[in-house]
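I hope you will forgive my troubling you with a question about protein structure. The matter concerns a single protein, recorded as an amino acid sequence and a row of backbone structure tokens. Please examine both parts with care and let me know of anything in them that strikes you as inconsistent. Here, with my thanks, is the record as I have it:
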Amino acid sequence: MPSPEHSLAIGPVRCAWFPYRRGEPAEPQARRWLAQALAVPEAALGLRRDAHGRPHLDPGQGGYDANWSHSGERLLVALAHGARIGADIEWLRPRPNAMTLARRFFTAGEADALAALPHDQAERWFVRLWCAKEAVLKAHGRGIVFGLERLEFSRDGEGWRLSACDPALGAPGDWRLHAFSPAPEYLATLAWRTPAPARVDDRA
């Protein structure tokens, strides 16, 4: 297994990123790192996919959740304890149709915010926004088919802040996001939230 280029720990989340050969399945490489991170034999790593294709670690793994993403020649793998995790990495290739995609898939407010930026900045901000949205939706479990327009971000200093979302995603304040550049010409975002507390039936 290739050694990780680097790793990161923030809150309940650990992640690492690796060289990746485009066209190859990413799951075997992700499984190897997850097994090492959890100190279990790879054959004993309980990892399955649900009906929507999202990976899940078995409950016997001690309350951990995992997610991964690949783009270009990089693979990002994330592991979280006691939280649902989503990860997205994007290669900063030219995107001449970024504004067309923003108008089609993002909210009107997000598209307007991107359109107000100088052209040489708009593509990078577009990718950062795409990463943030996809990371949240991957943590949620449905991915972008759930609808990129069902969560809205606002510009906040040098990044994006989740300001509104569909109730199925919880409240914006439930989410934590960390955006970073794992390698030159790559952007990534981790998004996580702790499970909602169990409801107490007052009639009991």
Notes: The chain has four helices and eleven strands.
